[in-house]
Amino acid sequence: MTGRKLLLGTLVLTLLIVPAGAAEKLPIDFEATTLDGTRFDASRLKGHVVLLDFWAVWCPPCIAAMPTLNRLDRELGDRGFDVVGVAVYSGEPEDVAEFLEDKETTYTVVVGDEDLTERFEVIGFPTYFLLDVDGTVFKMYVGEMNNMEEELEKDIETLLSRKSSKP
Amino acid sequence: MKKVFSLLVATGLVASVVVARRADAQELSPKAKQIVDYLLADWSKHMHSTGISLAMDNLGFEPDDVLRLEVGEHFRGHTEIANNLKFWGANNYILSSEEKRIAKQIINTFDLEEELPTIDALVQELGIPEARLRDRLRFLRDAGLLQEAAESPIGYKLIRQYGRWGGPLRHNYHTITIGDGKPFGVW
Fold this sequence. Notes:
The structure holds two protein chains of two kinds. By secondary structure, chain A is an alpha/beta fold. Helix content of chain A is 38%, strand content 22%. Chain A has a single domain (24-162), classed as Glutaredoxin. A seven-stranded mixed β-sheet of chain A has the order 2-1-5-4-3-6-7, with helices on one face. Chain B is mainly α. Helix content of chain B is 59%, strand content 5%. In chain B, strand 3 and strand 4 (184-185) form a beta hairpin. In chain B, helix 2 (30-43) crosses helix 4 (65-77) and helix 7 (97-113) crosses helix 9. The longest helix of chain B has 24 residues, at 2-25. At the A-B interface, helix 5 of A face helix 5 of B.
């Protein structure tokens, strides 16, 4: 068999074996920058229920939601739940860190770029994505929510219950 | 021969450094600097988000696309100088309210109908005379939101990342005047 035929055969075999969409990233597979400027790889949170909070320093409803997010992260953290705040359009990591100095956020906050907002199709703030343990989106919530605590807690509980019932 | 080559390399390096320094030190034209100073002062006020064209009006300058783009380019390269630039991006300050209306109409049509509007449709929807509209489409190209496309009914197509070009404000514009003061933009 010539090298060319071998290459062609390998290519055809690869196309047959690799399922469609295998190269697509899961929503949890993203990178951002931590507030101290290091790389944050969200894919390490696979296996957890994750609430992604796309927020901005100029967005009052985003800031008003922080105590709720703190509480959820604190109370449900032991059961495999994490909140990750993704600050966008808010300057550099040091700008966000300075802004958060008096906000007492206890959950992870990172800084995302415009590519990330485009990938998640964020069109308003805050936008939350509740991710299931497999890294897929369970639900998206856009804008200020009147019954935010109840709504989020109910959905998070659903996912945590499913997680704990899995063998 | 080796010496000549070394000399050429050295000359090239020196020339590159000189060009880079010139670019770094390139100063704004006096009018552009006046606009930048005006806007930085304006933006220091709570929720003020005035655009370049309105600043030019307030300073008594005639409309000047080249001057506007000079200031815009400065802002694109120096987003660290103001929170407004960090939050909303420079592009929102480059377009006038009229250009934002045109941009929004084109984007909305494209998003909803997956095709660009015709010139006639834009004239009808926006109430802008055709010659003026064509002139502003050229500016939207110069500003970077559109690129030429012969097959398009307006002669241009949206850039690939048009959805994020305008930043989170997405071509919104709000202008306020208090008392007999100068009008200003808000976010």
